[in-house]
Design goal:
two-stranded antiparallel ribbon; seven-stranded antiparallel β-sheet; 26% helix; alpha+beta; single chain; 257 residues; 7 helices
Length: 257
């Protein structure tokens, strides 16, 4: 499937509403959100996290800045995550509260821990009046005592997800967790409501299929040209196939004046 960046509505002149402020925000965005190597636990790692790239795009920070802010502000005694490459590649390990997962053994599968950590970071960002946004969260979970954290995702089917996101005004920025039919088809992407269109952007795309570990791609690329899809869910970061069928989201909605 083609990357739709060149013909995206995001390149149209903005309407005189939230789209105008969104364009100003985008114009101030760092040139590469995905700035491998990623800062984690005081060390560097070349493994990237889609969640850090997404939160970075939502707040105009690099992925490294987000990781550094989160760990240093909340978990200064957090065990180094880059000592274990497999754990370092798992964003849930990083976002999850180490008090809940002291050995990190199950944190990578704790969806509630990840959502709580990301939500806390975005709430703090929205709490600064200078940022002129209101935080909203639509990330349904359902109880499951057999999984870490005691909850598993209950995402919306893609048509319902798109409908809910379209109810937000122009200028809204989203962090969207998308799900495919298989357990490993989970990904974070950023989206924006601009001139009445939903534009999805994937700031963390795997670079090469031949960089493999345990049957999964581990290579990643920094990019100034994130893969874009317009008015529909994004494609897979490795092969570009239309695999995502459901999702949930955080939103930063423009504050009403």
């Amino acid at each position: 499937m083609k990357d739709e960046a060149k013909n995206s509505p995001i390149h149209q002149p903005p309407m005189p509403d939230g789209s105008a402020s969104l364009k100003a925000f985008r114009d101030a965005r760092p040139p590469a959100i995905n700035d491998s190597p990623l800062y984690q636990g005081g060390k560097q790692t070349h493994l990237l996290n889609c969640s850090f790239c997404t939160v970075g795009a939502m707040t105009n920070k690099t992925a490294s800045d987000v990781a550094k802010d989160h760990i240093e502000q909340n978990y200064s005694k957090h065990a180094s995550l880059s000592d274990n490459a497999k754990r370092a590649s798992q964003e849930m390990t990083v976002w999850s509260d180490p008090a809940q997962n002291p050995d990190n053994a199950t944190a990578a599968y704790d969806f509630k821990g990840q959502l709580d950590g990301m939500g806390s970071y975005l709430k703090k960002y929205a709490g600064d009046p200078a940022n002129k946004v209101t935080f909203k969260q639509d990330t349904p979970l359902k109880p499951n005592s057999e999984v870490p954290g005691g909850h598993e995702p209950a995402p919306y089917p893609k048509n319902e997800l798109i409908k809910r996101m379209n109810e937000y005004p122009n200028g809204t920025r989203f962090g969207v967790m998308v799900f495919g039919s298989e357990a490993n088809q989970t990904h974070w992407v950023q989206a924006e409501k601009y001139n009445g269109n939903l534009v999805f952007q994937d700031f963390q795309q795997n670079a090469k299929m031949d960089v493999m570990k345990n049957g999964r791609p581990t290579g990643a690329q920094a990019t100034n040209d994130p893969r874009i899809t317009n008015n529909r869910l994004p494609v897979g970061p490795v092969d570009g196939k239309d695999i995502y069928q459901s999702g949930m989201f955080f939103a930063l909605e423009p504050t009403k004046s």
